[in-house]
Design goal:
The complex is a heterodimer of chains A (about 600) and B (about 220).
Chain A: H1 2-15, E1 25-28, E2 30-36, E3 49-52, E4 55-56, E5 66-76, E6 83-87, E7 90-91, E8 93-98, E9 101-105, E10 121-125, E11 133-143, E12 150-151, E13 154-157, H2 159-197, H3 202-218, H4 232-257, H5 263-282, H6 284-287, H7 291-294, H8 299-315, H9 319-342, H10 353-442, H11 447-472, H12 478-495, E14 499-505, H13 514-535, E15 539-547, E16 550-557, H14 567-583, E17 587-592, E18 598-605
Parallel strand pairs in A: 14-15
Antiparallel strand pairs in A: 1-13, 2-3, 2-5, 4-12, 5-11, 6-10, 6-13, 7-12, 8-9, 8-11, 15-16, 16-18, 17-18
Helix pairs in contact in A: 1-10, 2-3, 2-10, 3-4, 3-10, 4-5, 4-8, 8-9, 9-10, 10-11, 11-12, 11-13, 12-13, 13-14
Chain B: E1 11-14, H1 18-31, E2 38-41, H2 44-53, E3 58-62, E4 64-65, E5 68-69, H3 70-80, E6 85-90, H4 95-104, E7 108-111, H5 116-127, H6 135-144, H7 163-173, H8 178-185, H9 189-209, H10 211-220
Parallel strand pairs in B: 1-2, 1-3, 3-6, 6-7
Antiparallel strand pairs in B: 4-5
Helix pairs in contact in B: 1-5, 3-4, 4-10, 6-7, 9-10
Classes of the chains: A alpha+beta (about 600), B alpha/beta (about 220).
Chain lengths: ~600, ~220
């Protein structure tokens, strides 16, 4: 919207040269001027000098503070047609007389002088004021030499045309400044609020300060009265001091925005601003007229800060910086042009483009600061999302860990309970068993005692297996689980004069659950018991192999063999072996024949 | 050292169960000569009193004695009468107790659960200067003792296991019989039994240097 407005303004600017039809509007540039005192009520009789408008009298009468009368004449062909009269520029306060009649008087023609220069003046003249032939315009201007006193060009002509010029002047010289003032005040207060609520964001604070001081400075363009100051000196020097202060804070804002901190420069700027404000209040009559000396040098840090910022924006690829740099570059160039006008190096134009571009700077800065704010918000939101995600992950992990630990604890408890049970068996039942065996063996030998001892020993061996599988289940693979059995039985077989040959294949890292392990161990132990007791063999071969998720166990002896069909021979033992094989989900193959040894082969799945 | 035989006479049995006393006496008598001097003590105090009179060549010591722990007695014997061989009698092969006894200085162990024939073989092995060993004991020793660095070949020094000892322990741990180990290592079975005894000594030395094991084993003894 702002850009559209600016485009419109630029369009108006271009239209201007053609829109001043000389035929219908006459520009009066020749006048006579005569100085007088503050209190003069009538123009002096003598002392008139011809001047060319726009006239600044300080060039002619450098020390004249007071009133200068300007007299102009024009020839009116048709007194019946009303005409428009436009005073482009009067500084500072004026009275306007036409043909001896008072047309306009500013509220204050002595200090504190009204500040009429802020607007052009427009009047419609008609009969009886208007004469046919020569008409006289008298402008009584109250001014002070230090503040560019004088009178601008005067236009007369078709009222509508002149009024259009007046409106254009009002727009460029007053409305825009009012707009600037308002926007500065609003943005300044807004960001002041931001800063007050969030002190850590000092950029906001500096922006607010810059903008509010800028608003104070902009007030000079829109207020007719120098209130609250009693003199024009007071007003002007304060205005210059506000310029100094706002430029200083602008520089600091730029530095902070670039994430720089130039402590000494900043301190110097702030001290200078404070000194300016103080001196202004204490000695307005010295500071006012000298304002160009002490306030104007501030343009150096001002442009330096802008250059620094542009440099920083070029090097840092951030959208907010780029936008702000662009919004600053145009007004900077324009303000340079304005400066030249102010210093009277370049000729004045009707249009204060600088004022028109000031909102651009403000909005650019506002955008950048708001961008920062939203970036911070985005970060916070991103952080929140991230935090939430992390909390979720942590919660999930925690619950997984807890459930795993719970499972583990449960399994430990179960193992512990089993171990306790086994220990009780071991200590109580096992001890009694051993005691019984020992005492029976020491009693006088009898066939019955021998049989009982053999049975008890089988029970003992089985208990051994139960204990082994239960207590070792956790910390060893099948190879480790079979090791005690192998050790004990190879010794036992050796004692009995039987050579045993063991082969374990692929049992490392093979694990069965406790129940299956026990079944396998029992199978082997029973098979070996059979070999030891009944086979009369000289040699036994044992093979346990794990491959392709299949377990193969084989016990083969070269003993006297038996008839598998004849249950009476070794049938009872075989039935038990078959049931073990079934419990393992496998199958038992028996190869045996009387006199040709025996082979038991167990195959079962073992994932 | 490996070939040093152990006399079974005079022998001391420290055991509070009468049936086991008799069983061990019978086994000792069978293993040695029938006229072996066998003394029996049923408590730690009784054993110490007996030893004060005559140091036995071998002492078979039960763990749970009425007035103390057999482990302490083994420890005491090892320091007071290092010439006496000590053999721990374990009721039901609680491997931790067996290991604690070996660390305390026992040169062998007998498991009561075993058949007479097996215990006799064990006693004979001890007599020959060897020591019986079971897979679970071998496994535990492998975790307790560090393996020697190949460069430091001095196997008799320190308590690190020599390569050969480690090999033998691994085979025992996998259940191989002495005959099989002898075949695999091209050593005689008697030599292998001697290795076992040397390993037990290292276990005792290792335990002395690393008191933590001892503390552990004492802790396990309640």
């Amino acid at each position: 919207m702002l850009l559209a407005l600016l485009a419109l303004l630029a369009g108006c600017a271009r239209q201007h040269p053609g829109a001043s039809p000389t035929t219908r509007v006459q520009t009066l540039q020749h006048a006579e001027a005569a100085p007088s005192g503050w209190d003069a009520t009538a123009p002096p009789v003598a002392g008139w000098v011809p001047v060319k408008l726009t006239d600044f009298w300080d060039k002619r009468w450098p020390r004249h503070n007071g009133v200068v009368w300007y007299r102009l004449h024009w020839n009116q062909a048709d007194p019946n047609a009303p005409i428009g009269l436009l005073l482009d520029y009067v500084c500072l306060a004026d009275e306007v007389w036409v043909n001896g009649s008072l047309l306009h008087r500013d509220p204050s023609l002595v200090e504190p002088l009204s500040r009429r220069w802020i607007t052009p003046q427009y009047f419609v003249l008609d009969q009886p004021l208007l004469h046919a032939g020569e008409n006289t315009l008298l402008v009584r201007v109250s001014g002070i030499a230090a503040y560019q006193p004088g009178l601008g060009v005067v236009r007369i002509g078709d009222p509508e045309t002149v009024q259009a010029i007046y409106r254009k002047g009002m727009f460029w010289r007053f409305d825009i400044h009012l707009f600037n003032f308002a926007i500065s005040a609003v943005l300044g207060v807004l960001f002041l609020m931001f800063w007050l609520l969030r002190r850590r964001e000092t950029v906001f604070g500096w922006y607010a300060l810059t903008t509010l001081l800028g608003a104070g400075y902009a007030w000079t363009f829109v207020t007719l009265s120098p209130w609250p100051f009693a003199t024009t000196d007071g007003w002007e020097s304060m205005n210059a001091a506000l310029y100094v202060a706002s430029t200083s804070t602008f520089c600091i804002f730029q530095l902070r925005f670039c994430e720089q901190r130039w402590q000494r420069t900043e301190t110097a700027l702030l001290l200078y601003s404070a000194a300016s404000l103080l001196a202004t209040l204490l000695a307005p009559h010295v500071m006012g007229p000298l304002r160009n000396v002490w306030a104007l040098p501030m343009i150096v840090p001002n442009y330096a800060a802008i250059m620094l910022f542009l440099w920083y924006a070029i090097r840092t690829p951030r959208a907010d910086l780029r936008v702000m740099a662009a919004c600053m570059l145009v007004p900077a160039l324009v303000s340079l042009a304005d400066l030249l006008v102010y210093l009277q190096i370049a000729s004045s134009s009707d249009y204060d483009i600088g004022a028109a571009t000031t909102p651009l700077t403000l909005v650019g800065m506002g955008f950048a600061v708001a961008w920062r704010f939203s970036a911070a918000m985005r970060r916070v939101e991103g952080f929140n999302a991230e935090l939430r995600h992390e909390v979720d992950v942590a919660t999930t992990q925690l619950s997984e860990t807890l459930s795993r630990e719970h499972t583990l604890a449960l399994s430990h408890t179960r193992i512990g309970e089993r171990l306790n049970l086994v220990r009780d068996l071991h200590d109580g039942f096992g001890g009694s068993l051993l005691g019984a065996i020992t005492s029976l063996e020491q009693s006088p030998p009898s066939p019955e005692a021998t049989r009982t001892v053999a049975t008890l020993k089988e029970l003992r061996d089985d208990l051994r297996l139960v204990i082994d599988t239960t207590t070792r289940e956790q910390d060893t693979d099948l190879a480790g689980l079979l090791a005690p059995l192998r050790h004990r039985w190879s010794q036992r077989l050796e004692t009995a004069g039987i050579d045993s040959f063991w082969r374990f294949d692929g049992l490392d890292d093979c694990r069965l659950d406790a129940a299956r392990s026990l079944d396998l161990l029992r199978f082997l132990q029973e098979a070996l018991t059979n070999v030891l007791k009944h086979s009369g063999a000289c040699r036994v071969d044992l093979l346990v192999r794990h491959a392709h998720e299949q377990l193969h166990a084989e016990v083969r002896d070269d003993g006297r063999g038996f008839d598998p069909a004849n249950l009476a021979s070794r049938g009872a033992g075989l039935a038990s072996l078959h049931s073990r094989a079934a419990r393992l989900g496998g199958r038992l193959a028996v190869q045996a024949a009387p006199g040709a040894g025996a082979a038991l082969q167990l195959d079962c799945p073992a994932p | 050292m490996r070939n040093m035989t152990v006399a079974l006479d005079p022998a001391l049995i420290v055991e509070d169960d009468v049936a086991t006393q008799q069983r061990l006496a019978r086994l000792l008598a069978t293993a040695a000569d029938s006229d072996t001097r066998i003394a029996v003590a049923s408590s730690v105090a009784e054993a110490k009193a007996h030893i004060a009179g005559r140091t036995p060549a071998i002492a078979l010591i039960d763990i749970g004695l009425p007035d103390g722990s057999g482990i302490d007695l083994i420890h005491w014997l090892r320091h007071r009468h290092p010439e006496a061989a000590t053999v721990v009698i374990s009721a039901w092969g609680n491997e931790e107790i067996v290991l604690a006894a070996l660390q305390a200085g026992a040169t062998g162990y007998l498991l009561k659960e075993r058949d007479d024939v097996e215990l006799q073989l064990a006693l004979q092995s001890i007599q020959r200067g060897g020591a019986p060993i079971d897979p679970f004991v071998a496994r535990r020793i492998l975790t307790l003792l560090p393996a020697a660095q190949p460069a430091a070949a001095a196997s008799d020094e320190g308590h690190a296991l020599s390569e050969r000892e480690t090999e033998i322990l691994r085979l025992v741990a996998r259940g191989y019989s002495n005959r099989e180990i002898a075949e695999l290592t091209a050593l005689s079975r008697f030599t292998i039994e001697g290795y076992t005894k040397a390993i037990y000594r290292k276990l005792a030395v290792g335990s002395r240097t690393a008191a933590v094991f001892e503390a552990k084993s004492r802790g396990l003894l309640r």
